[in-house]
Amino acid sequence: MGAAAITGSGLFTPPESISNDELVASFNAYVEQRNRDNAVAIAEGRAQPLTASSSEFIVKASGIRSRHVVDKKGVLDITQMRPRIRARGDDEPSLMCEMGLAAARQALERAGRSVQDVDAVLVACSNLQRPYPAIAVELQHYLGVKGFAYDINVACASAAFGVQAAVDAVRQGSARAVLVVSPEICSGHLNFRNRDCHFIFGDACTAVLVEARDAANGAAAFEILGTRLQTSFSNNIRNNFGFLNASEEPPRPWDDILFQQEGRKVFKEVVPMVAELITGHLADLGLQADAVRRFWLHQANLGMNQLIARRVLGRDATDRESPTILDEYANTSSAGSVIAFHKHHEDLKAGDLGVLCAFGAGYSAGSVVLRRV
Fold first, then answer.
1. Per-residue pLDDT at 123 exceeds 80
2. pLDDT of the residue at 169
3. What DSSP string describes 296-357?
4. Which entry of 156, 186, 205, 357 is annotated as an active-site residue?
5. Is 156 in the active site?
6. Residue 27: what are its φ and ψ, rounded to 5°?
7. How many Å apart are CA 367 and CA 43, to the nearest integer?
8. By CB atoms within 10 Å of each CB, which of 66, 120, 173, 198 scores lowest?
9. Which domains does the chain have, with CATH numbers?
10. Does residue 311 contact residue 270 with C-beta atoms inside 8 Å?
11. What is the pLDDT of residue 1?
């Protein structure tokens, strides 16, 4: 069983972007209308007024300044406040598949590979457009890849879980090369009417190609020294959407089947979990934390990433050591850590160490330790 490596990465970014100011203007217009419509109930104490948001609040709470989305108009329309996505026929590629094609082809190009070199496609993301046929099998079809494909859903940690599955397949000989693709349309499950979370998510799709280290043909290959996964059940981040919603009695309100979280609890519980995961993983590989040149962390919250890096390193990490992309992309769920890797790896030299770590609902977390070839 030889070593595996990430030999190429790809990124699809939706062309439309929403700044904090634009998002806040839309949200505050909704708040004004809602408070006006409920003025009597609010005056009589039967309803609570909604509170306006601000760009300053968003930056302070998260570090986010903008986000890319698949449909800007629908999100900002206060009568809609969710993306408008054209219903496609069964004979058309789905939106997730379309995003995945762009990212996967870029990853193959960077790896110097073609679809004929790939034996498996894994779609690893937090929300799937449909239960079956698998988005991964659809993507496999439109790419023209022979072999097998399947979907993986482990919330924001999905990409890391996908990488471990790909490594296992390569090492065991069931695939020469595996594409791990993470299409995230997070704007579709975000409650844009909730002040505490309306700013959190953006849309994007990433892809990485995993193959045997000795077969690496790309210009920027990273040997995978080890992977480690961890899960711990928690309701502090939850999405109740599912095929049984229409059968439930009484039916759930709409905001109960969208993203919801207890942010302070998540921060308090996930930071030590992830810091211990990374620290223990490095120690078991015989590596010192201060030898790691780059941490590509899940892009959910700037303060969370800063504290995780501080606990691992014993000091504050520089922007170079722990790069941030959430200021432009916001939280793109499983795609976030891979976007950070995709955009911030080319300056590393042979022998340099890096850690890609994703974490989120579940709780779920995955650590991938890499060394530049």
1. yes
2. 97
3. EE--S-HHHHHHHHHHHHSSPPPTTTS---HHHH-B-GGGHHHHHHHHS-TT--TT-EEEEE
4. 156
5. yes
6. -60, -45
7. 52
8. 173
9. 222-372 (3.40.47.10)
10. no
11. 59
Residue with tokens 């919801």: 260
pLDDT of amino acid 215: 86
Do 84 and 125 form a contact (C-beta atoms < 8 A)?
no
Q: What is the mean pLDDT of the chain?
A: 96
Q: What is the pLDDT of residues 238-252, one digit of tens each?
A: 999 999 999 999 999
Output DSSP code: residue 196. T
Cα–Cα dist 75/351, whole Å? 45
Three-state secondary structure of 208-219: EEEEEHHHCCCC
Residues 252-264 have pLDDT tens digits of 998 899 999 999 9
| pLDDT value for 255 | 87
Query: What amino acid occupies position 47?
Result: A
Residue 132 CB neighbours (<10 A): 9
Task: Tell me, rounded to whole angstroms, the distance of Cα 28 from its chain centroid.
Answer: 27
Q: Which long-range contacts (CB under 8 A, 24 or more apart) does 246-250 make?
A: none
Reported confidence tier of residue 287, pLDDT bands at 50, 70, 90: very high
pLDDT digits (tens, 9 = 90+) for 6-47: 999 999 999 999 999 999 999 999 999 999 999 999 999 999
272 cis-preceded (ω within 30 degrees of 0): no
Q: How far apart are CA 270 and CA 287, in angstroms?
A: 23
Strands 203-212 and 4-12: antiparallel
Residue 9 has phi, psi (to 5 degrees) of: -135, 155
What angle do the packed helices 263-284 and 302-313 form, to 10 degrees?
30
Which 3 state secondary structure label does DSSP give 283? helix
* Mean pLDDT calculated for residue range 64-81: 98
